[in-house]
Specification:
Helix content is 43%, strand content 14%. With 404 residues, the chain is an alpha/beta fold. Strand 4 and strand 5 form a beta hairpin. It is globular and about 65 Å long.
Protein backbone atom coordinates (compact mmCIF):
# COMPACT_ATOMS: atom_id res chain seq x y z
CA UNK A 1 0.00 0.00 0.00
CA UNK A 2 1.21 3.50 -0.75
CA UNK A 3 2.37 5.55 2.16
CA UNK A 4 0.01 8.11 3.58
CA UNK A 5 2.41 10.85 2.53
CA UNK A 6 1.92 9.89 -1.08
CA UNK A 7 -1.81 10.15 -0.71
CA UNK A 8 -1.80 13.56 0.95
CA UNK A 9 1.03 15.34 -0.81
CA UNK A 10 -1.47 17.81 -2.21
CA UNK A 11 -1.88 19.28 1.25
CA UNK A 12 0.99 21.73 1.55
CA UNK A 13 -0.47 24.73 3.37
CA UNK A 14 0.09 25.31 7.04
CA UNK A 15 -2.96 25.35 9.28
CA UNK A 16 -3.70 28.91 10.26
CA UNK A 17 -3.38 29.37 13.98
CA UNK A 18 -2.46 25.73 14.56
CA UNK A 19 1.33 25.77 14.47
CA UNK A 20 3.62 23.69 16.63
CA UNK A 21 5.33 24.88 19.76
CA UNK A 22 9.08 25.18 20.01
CA UNK A 23 9.14 26.40 23.60
CA UNK A 24 9.59 24.01 26.51
CA UNK A 25 7.12 26.23 28.39
CA UNK A 26 4.29 25.58 25.94
CA UNK A 27 2.60 22.46 24.57
CA UNK A 28 0.12 22.59 21.70
CA UNK A 29 -2.62 19.93 21.72
CA UNK A 30 -5.09 19.09 19.00
CA UNK A 31 -8.21 17.55 20.52
CA UNK A 32 -11.26 16.42 18.60
CA UNK A 33 -14.98 16.90 19.01
CA UNK A 34 -16.44 17.51 22.44
CA UNK A 35 -13.17 16.56 24.09
CA UNK A 36 -11.54 19.52 22.36
CA UNK A 37 -14.15 21.84 23.81
CA UNK A 38 -13.69 20.57 27.36
CA UNK A 39 -10.01 19.70 27.67
CA UNK A 40 -8.98 23.21 28.73
CA UNK A 41 -10.63 22.61 32.10
CA UNK A 42 -7.93 20.02 32.81
CA UNK A 43 -5.00 21.71 31.14
CA UNK A 44 -5.57 24.89 33.14
CA UNK A 45 -4.84 22.80 36.23
CA UNK A 46 -1.71 21.42 34.59
CA UNK A 47 -0.49 24.94 33.84
CA UNK A 48 -1.20 26.04 37.41
CA UNK A 49 0.79 23.07 38.76
CA UNK A 50 3.73 23.14 36.34
CA UNK A 51 3.90 26.60 34.82
CA UNK A 52 3.74 25.03 31.35
CA UNK A 53 1.24 26.71 29.04
CA UNK A 54 -1.03 24.32 27.15
CA UNK A 55 -2.79 25.53 24.02
CA UNK A 56 -5.78 23.33 23.17
CA UNK A 57 -6.97 23.55 19.56
CA UNK A 58 -10.48 22.07 19.22
CA UNK A 59 -11.06 20.38 15.86
CA UNK A 60 -14.40 18.91 14.68
CA UNK A 61 -14.12 15.21 13.93
CA UNK A 62 -15.28 15.71 10.35
CA UNK A 63 -12.32 18.01 9.71
CA UNK A 64 -9.73 16.11 11.69
CA UNK A 65 -8.39 13.72 9.04
CA UNK A 66 -7.73 16.48 6.52
CA UNK A 67 -6.05 18.71 9.09
CA UNK A 68 -3.87 15.86 10.31
CA UNK A 69 -2.94 15.03 6.72
CA UNK A 70 -2.02 18.65 6.07
CA UNK A 71 0.14 18.73 9.17
CA UNK A 72 2.02 15.62 8.07
CA UNK A 73 2.61 16.96 4.58
CA UNK A 74 3.85 20.32 5.86
CA UNK A 75 5.70 18.83 8.85
CA UNK A 76 4.14 21.56 10.94
CA UNK A 77 1.50 20.94 13.56
CA UNK A 78 0.92 20.33 17.25
CA UNK A 79 2.93 18.55 19.90
CA UNK A 80 0.19 16.23 21.15
CA UNK A 81 -2.68 14.81 19.10
CA UNK A 82 -5.85 13.04 20.20
CA UNK A 83 -6.25 10.26 17.65
CA UNK A 84 -8.99 7.72 17.11
CA UNK A 85 -7.55 4.22 17.38
CA UNK A 86 -8.46 3.19 13.83
CA UNK A 87 -6.35 6.05 12.41
CA UNK A 88 -3.20 5.15 14.32
CA UNK A 89 -1.87 2.48 11.90
CA UNK A 90 -2.20 4.77 8.88
CA UNK A 91 -0.45 7.75 10.45
CA UNK A 92 2.03 5.49 12.20
CA UNK A 93 3.05 3.85 8.94
CA UNK A 94 3.44 7.32 7.43
CA UNK A 95 6.12 8.13 10.01
CA UNK A 96 3.99 10.87 11.60
CA UNK A 97 4.02 9.49 15.15
CA UNK A 98 7.00 9.72 17.47
CA UNK A 99 8.48 6.64 19.13
CA UNK A 100 7.32 6.94 22.74
CA UNK A 101 9.77 4.34 24.02
CA UNK A 102 12.35 7.14 24.03
CA UNK A 103 10.28 8.96 26.66
CA UNK A 104 9.07 6.06 28.81
CA UNK A 105 11.67 6.29 31.58
CA UNK A 106 10.22 7.97 34.64
CA UNK A 107 6.74 8.26 33.15
CA UNK A 108 4.60 5.61 34.79
CA UNK A 109 1.60 6.02 32.48
CA UNK A 110 3.66 4.80 29.51
CA UNK A 111 3.49 1.21 30.83
CA UNK A 112 1.26 -0.86 28.52
CA UNK A 113 0.22 -3.15 31.38
CA UNK A 114 -1.78 -0.26 32.85
CA UNK A 115 -4.34 -0.59 30.07
CA UNK A 116 -7.06 -3.04 29.07
CA UNK A 117 -5.88 -5.91 26.90
CA UNK A 118 -8.09 -4.66 24.05
CA UNK A 119 -6.28 -1.29 24.19
CA UNK A 120 -2.74 -2.59 24.28
CA UNK A 121 -2.58 -3.46 20.58
CA UNK A 122 -3.62 0.10 19.71
CA UNK A 123 -0.42 1.39 21.34
CA UNK A 124 1.89 -0.16 18.73
CA UNK A 125 2.42 0.07 14.98
CA UNK A 126 4.86 -2.51 13.60
CA UNK A 127 6.11 -3.05 17.17
CA UNK A 128 6.86 0.67 17.54
CA UNK A 129 5.34 2.26 20.67
CA UNK A 130 3.41 5.25 19.30
CA UNK A 131 0.41 6.01 21.51
CA UNK A 132 -1.05 5.95 25.01
CA UNK A 133 -4.76 5.21 25.58
CA UNK A 134 -6.49 8.34 26.92
CA UNK A 135 -10.07 7.22 27.30
CA UNK A 136 -11.91 4.12 26.18
CA UNK A 137 -15.40 3.16 25.17
CA UNK A 138 -17.18 0.05 24.07
CA UNK A 139 -20.68 -1.07 23.11
CA UNK A 140 -23.38 -2.40 25.41
CA UNK A 141 -27.08 -3.21 25.14
CA UNK A 142 -29.40 -0.52 26.49
CA UNK A 143 -32.79 -2.02 27.35
CA UNK A 144 -36.09 -1.04 28.95
CA UNK A 145 -36.30 -3.30 31.97
CA UNK A 146 -40.07 -2.91 32.26
CA UNK A 147 -40.85 -3.81 28.65
CA UNK A 148 -38.34 -6.66 28.32
CA UNK A 149 -39.63 -8.16 31.56
CA UNK A 150 -43.30 -7.92 30.58
CA UNK A 151 -42.99 -9.07 26.97
CA UNK A 152 -40.04 -11.46 27.03
CA UNK A 153 -40.41 -12.77 30.58
CA UNK A 154 -36.77 -12.03 31.35
CA UNK A 155 -35.45 -10.69 34.63
CA UNK A 156 -32.33 -9.43 32.84
CA UNK A 157 -31.35 -8.45 29.34
CA UNK A 158 -31.14 -11.27 26.78
CA UNK A 159 -27.93 -13.14 27.55
CA UNK A 160 -27.31 -15.12 24.36
CA UNK A 161 -27.84 -14.81 20.62
CA UNK A 162 -30.81 -17.18 20.83
CA UNK A 163 -32.41 -15.27 23.70
CA UNK A 164 -31.91 -12.00 21.86
CA UNK A 165 -33.58 -13.27 18.70
CA UNK A 166 -36.47 -14.83 20.61
CA UNK A 167 -37.07 -11.71 22.69
CA UNK A 168 -36.83 -9.52 19.59
CA UNK A 169 -39.48 -11.52 17.78
CA UNK A 170 -41.83 -11.17 20.75
CA UNK A 171 -41.23 -7.44 21.01
CA UNK A 172 -41.87 -6.82 17.33
CA UNK A 173 -45.10 -8.85 17.52
CA UNK A 174 -46.68 -6.24 19.82
CA UNK A 175 -48.34 -4.48 16.91
CA UNK A 176 -47.83 -1.97 14.12
CA UNK A 177 -44.78 0.27 14.41
CA UNK A 178 -43.44 -1.80 17.27
CA UNK A 179 -39.90 -3.10 16.96
CA UNK A 180 -37.22 -4.61 19.11
CA UNK A 181 -33.74 -3.20 18.74
CA UNK A 182 -32.28 -0.19 16.98
CA UNK A 183 -29.20 -1.32 15.03
CA UNK A 184 -26.62 1.08 13.62
CA UNK A 185 -25.58 -0.25 10.23
CA UNK A 186 -23.41 2.84 9.70
CA UNK A 187 -21.12 1.57 12.45
CA UNK A 188 -18.12 0.00 10.72
CA UNK A 189 -17.96 -2.64 13.46
CA UNK A 190 -21.61 -3.72 13.25
CA UNK A 191 -20.91 -7.01 11.41
CA UNK A 192 -17.45 -7.29 12.90
CA UNK A 193 -18.63 -7.42 16.52
CA UNK A 194 -21.00 -10.29 15.81
CA UNK A 195 -18.23 -12.08 13.91
CA UNK A 196 -15.89 -11.67 16.91
CA UNK A 197 -18.60 -13.14 19.14
CA UNK A 198 -18.72 -16.10 16.77
CA UNK A 199 -14.98 -16.74 16.95
CA UNK A 200 -13.79 -14.85 13.87
CA UNK A 201 -10.24 -13.50 13.94
CA UNK A 202 -9.92 -10.22 12.03
CA UNK A 203 -6.40 -10.79 10.68
CA UNK A 204 -5.05 -14.11 9.48
CA UNK A 205 -1.43 -15.22 9.84
CA UNK A 206 -0.50 -13.04 6.88
CA UNK A 207 -2.17 -9.93 8.24
CA UNK A 208 -5.05 -10.20 5.75
CA UNK A 209 -8.77 -9.70 6.41
CA UNK A 210 -10.83 -12.74 5.39
CA UNK A 211 -14.58 -12.11 5.52
CA UNK A 212 -15.36 -15.31 3.60
CA UNK A 213 -14.40 -17.22 6.74
CA UNK A 214 -17.43 -19.25 7.84
CA UNK A 215 -17.40 -17.57 11.27
CA UNK A 216 -17.94 -14.17 9.64
CA UNK A 217 -20.59 -15.44 7.22
CA UNK A 218 -22.51 -17.20 10.02
CA UNK A 219 -22.54 -13.97 12.01
CA UNK A 220 -23.96 -12.02 9.06
CA UNK A 221 -26.64 -14.66 8.53
CA UNK A 222 -27.56 -14.40 12.20
CA UNK A 223 -27.88 -10.64 12.35
CA UNK A 224 -29.81 -10.33 9.08
CA UNK A 225 -32.66 -12.17 10.79
CA UNK A 226 -33.45 -9.02 12.78
CA UNK A 227 -34.29 -7.26 9.52
CA UNK A 228 -36.08 -10.22 7.94
CA UNK A 229 -38.37 -10.82 10.95
CA UNK A 230 -39.27 -7.15 11.35
CA UNK A 231 -37.49 -6.88 14.69
CA UNK A 232 -35.76 -3.75 13.44
CA UNK A 233 -36.24 -1.17 10.73
CA UNK A 234 -33.96 1.30 9.00
CA UNK A 235 -34.32 4.73 7.42
CA UNK A 236 -37.35 5.68 9.48
CA UNK A 237 -35.71 8.95 10.49
CA UNK A 238 -36.64 8.40 14.12
CA UNK A 239 -34.85 9.76 17.16
CA UNK A 240 -33.63 6.94 19.40
CA UNK A 241 -34.22 9.03 22.51
CA UNK A 242 -37.90 9.23 21.55
CA UNK A 243 -38.34 5.63 20.38
CA UNK A 244 -36.60 4.33 23.50
CA UNK A 245 -38.91 6.46 25.64
CA UNK A 246 -42.14 5.46 23.90
CA UNK A 247 -41.03 1.81 23.80
CA UNK A 248 -41.26 1.29 20.05
CA UNK A 249 -37.54 0.41 20.14
CA UNK A 250 -37.01 -0.82 23.72
CA UNK A 251 -33.42 -1.88 23.02
CA UNK A 252 -30.45 -0.34 21.26
CA UNK A 253 -26.69 -0.84 21.12
CA UNK A 254 -24.39 2.09 21.80
CA UNK A 255 -21.57 3.51 23.91
CA UNK A 256 -21.27 5.34 27.24
CA UNK A 257 -22.14 8.77 25.87
CA UNK A 258 -25.78 7.71 25.50
CA UNK A 259 -26.39 7.58 29.27
CA UNK A 260 -26.40 11.36 29.58
CA UNK A 261 -28.22 11.77 26.27
CA UNK A 262 -31.08 9.51 27.39
CA UNK A 263 -31.30 10.99 30.89
CA UNK A 264 -31.33 14.58 29.66
CA UNK A 265 -33.89 13.92 26.92
CA UNK A 266 -36.18 11.79 29.08
CA UNK A 267 -35.65 12.25 32.85
CA UNK A 268 -38.69 10.04 33.53
CA UNK A 269 -36.80 7.06 32.10
CA UNK A 270 -34.29 7.03 34.96
CA UNK A 271 -34.85 3.77 36.79
CA UNK A 272 -36.70 2.19 33.86
CA UNK A 273 -33.70 1.10 31.85
CA UNK A 274 -30.37 -0.62 32.38
CA UNK A 275 -27.37 -1.68 30.34
CA UNK A 276 -25.87 -5.12 29.82
CA UNK A 277 -23.04 -6.72 27.93
CA UNK A 278 -23.96 -7.68 24.40
CA UNK A 279 -25.73 -11.04 24.10
CA UNK A 280 -23.11 -13.75 23.76
CA UNK A 281 -22.37 -15.84 20.71
CA UNK A 282 -20.41 -19.08 20.89
CA UNK A 283 -17.24 -17.19 21.82
CA UNK A 284 -18.65 -14.58 24.19
CA UNK A 285 -19.87 -10.98 24.27
CA UNK A 286 -16.94 -9.31 22.55
CA UNK A 287 -17.50 -5.71 21.52
CA UNK A 288 -15.29 -2.98 20.11
CA UNK A 289 -12.62 -1.35 22.25
CA UNK A 290 -13.04 2.22 21.08
CA UNK A 291 -11.95 5.57 22.40
CA UNK A 292 -8.99 7.82 21.68
CA UNK A 293 -5.26 7.62 22.27
CA UNK A 294 -2.71 10.39 22.70
CA UNK A 295 0.26 10.58 20.36
CA UNK A 296 3.27 12.87 19.95
CA UNK A 297 3.65 14.41 16.51
CA UNK A 298 6.95 13.31 14.98
CA UNK A 299 7.74 16.87 13.95
CA UNK A 300 7.10 18.40 17.38
CA UNK A 301 10.00 20.44 18.75
CA UNK A 302 8.85 19.84 22.33
CA UNK A 303 8.53 16.09 22.64
CA UNK A 304 9.64 16.08 26.29
CA UNK A 305 6.93 18.55 27.23
CA UNK A 306 4.41 16.57 25.19
CA UNK A 307 5.36 13.36 26.97
CA UNK A 308 5.00 15.01 30.37
CA UNK A 309 1.49 16.18 29.54
CA UNK A 310 0.40 12.77 28.21
CA UNK A 311 1.79 11.12 31.32
CA UNK A 312 -0.21 13.51 33.53
CA UNK A 313 -3.47 13.16 31.58
CA UNK A 314 -3.42 9.36 31.91
CA UNK A 315 -2.79 9.14 35.65
CA UNK A 316 -5.66 7.63 37.67
CA UNK A 317 -6.63 10.79 39.53
CA UNK A 318 -6.74 12.93 36.39
CA UNK A 319 -8.68 10.27 34.49
CA UNK A 320 -11.28 10.21 37.27
CA UNK A 321 -11.62 13.96 36.97
CA UNK A 322 -11.93 13.70 33.19
CA UNK A 323 -14.76 11.20 33.67
CA UNK A 324 -16.59 13.79 35.78
CA UNK A 325 -16.04 16.44 33.11
CA UNK A 326 -16.65 14.52 29.91
CA UNK A 327 -18.20 11.15 30.96
CA UNK A 328 -15.28 9.48 29.13
CA UNK A 329 -14.41 6.06 30.51
CA UNK A 330 -10.89 5.87 32.01
CA UNK A 331 -8.27 3.89 30.11
CA UNK A 332 -6.08 3.20 33.15
CA UNK A 333 -7.14 -0.12 34.70
CA UNK A 334 -6.12 1.04 38.17
CA UNK A 335 -9.09 3.40 38.16
CA UNK A 336 -11.41 0.45 37.69
CA UNK A 337 -10.05 -1.27 40.80
CA UNK A 338 -11.37 1.63 42.89
CA UNK A 339 -14.71 0.60 44.43
CA UNK A 340 -15.60 4.21 45.11
CA UNK A 341 -15.19 5.05 41.44
CA UNK A 342 -17.32 2.06 40.36
CA UNK A 343 -20.11 3.31 42.61
CA UNK A 344 -19.83 6.88 41.32
CA UNK A 345 -21.49 6.38 37.93
CA UNK A 346 -24.29 4.55 36.17
CA UNK A 347 -23.63 0.79 36.14
CA UNK A 348 -19.87 1.21 35.79
CA UNK A 349 -19.45 -2.44 36.77
CA UNK A 350 -21.10 -3.40 33.47
CA UNK A 351 -18.78 -1.11 31.53
CA UNK A 352 -15.81 -2.70 33.30
CA UNK A 353 -16.91 -6.22 32.31
CA UNK A 354 -17.52 -5.12 28.73
CA UNK A 355 -14.14 -3.42 28.49
CA UNK A 356 -12.39 -6.53 29.75
CA UNK A 357 -13.99 -8.49 26.88
CA UNK A 358 -13.49 -5.82 24.21
CA UNK A 359 -11.26 -6.11 21.16
CA UNK A 360 -9.39 -3.26 19.49
CA UNK A 361 -9.59 -2.15 15.87
CA UNK A 362 -7.35 -4.17 13.51
CA UNK A 363 -4.01 -2.36 13.46
CA UNK A 364 -3.45 -2.25 9.72
CA UNK A 365 -3.06 0.86 7.60
CA UNK A 366 -5.82 -0.18 5.19
CA UNK A 367 -8.49 -0.64 7.86
CA UNK A 368 -10.34 2.65 7.38
CA UNK A 369 -10.84 1.93 3.67
CA UNK A 370 -11.81 -1.67 4.39
CA UNK A 371 -14.27 -0.46 6.99
CA UNK A 372 -16.06 1.73 4.46
CA UNK A 373 -16.55 -1.30 2.23
CA UNK A 374 -17.92 -3.24 5.20
CA UNK A 375 -20.42 -0.44 5.89
CA UNK A 376 -21.59 -0.66 2.29
CA UNK A 377 -21.99 -4.44 2.64
CA UNK A 378 -24.00 -3.96 5.83
CA UNK A 379 -26.52 -1.80 4.00
CA UNK A 380 -26.75 -4.26 1.11
CA UNK A 381 -27.57 -7.14 3.46
CA UNK A 382 -29.69 -5.41 6.09
CA UNK A 383 -31.62 -2.85 4.01
CA UNK A 384 -31.55 -4.13 0.44
CA UNK A 385 -31.85 -7.78 1.43
CA UNK A 386 -29.16 -9.01 -0.94
CA UNK A 387 -27.85 -12.56 -0.68
CA UNK A 388 -25.21 -12.92 2.05
CA UNK A 389 -22.79 -15.07 0.05
CA UNK A 390 -22.90 -12.75 -2.96
CA UNK A 391 -22.32 -9.62 -0.86
CA UNK A 392 -19.50 -11.22 1.11
CA UNK A 393 -17.72 -12.51 -2.00
CA UNK A 394 -17.85 -9.03 -3.54
CA UNK A 395 -16.65 -7.53 -0.27
CA UNK A 396 -13.70 -9.93 -0.14
CA UNK A 397 -12.69 -8.98 -3.68
CA UNK A 398 -12.61 -5.31 -2.68
CA UNK A 399 -10.65 -6.06 0.49
CA UNK A 400 -8.10 -8.12 -1.42
CA UNK A 401 -7.55 -5.22 -3.79
CA UNK A 402 -7.01 -2.84 -0.88
CA UNK A 403 -4.50 -5.18 0.72
CA UNK A 404 -2.69 -6.10 -2.48
Amino acid sequence: MKKLLGLISVFVLLLAGCGSSSSSDKVVVWAMGEEGNRLHTLTEEYTADTGVEVEVVAIPWDQAYEKLSTAVASKSGPDVIQMGTSWIPEFGNAGALADLSEFADGRESFDKDLYFEGSQDTMFVNDKFVSVPWYVDTRVLYYRTDIVSDVCGLDTAPQTWDEMLDCSEKLSARGDDQYSVDLDIKDQFFFVQYAWQNGWVALDENGKVNVTDEKFVEAVDYVRQFAETGATEFDLGLDITQTFADGSFPMFISGPWMVNVINEANPDLVGKYEIAQLPAGDEGSTSLMGGSNLVIFEYSENKEGAADLINWLTTPEVEKEWYEIAASLPSNVNVWDDAEFIESGFMLDVWKDALEDATGSPMIAEWEKIAQEIVSAQEQVMVEGKDTDTVIEELQTKIDALQA
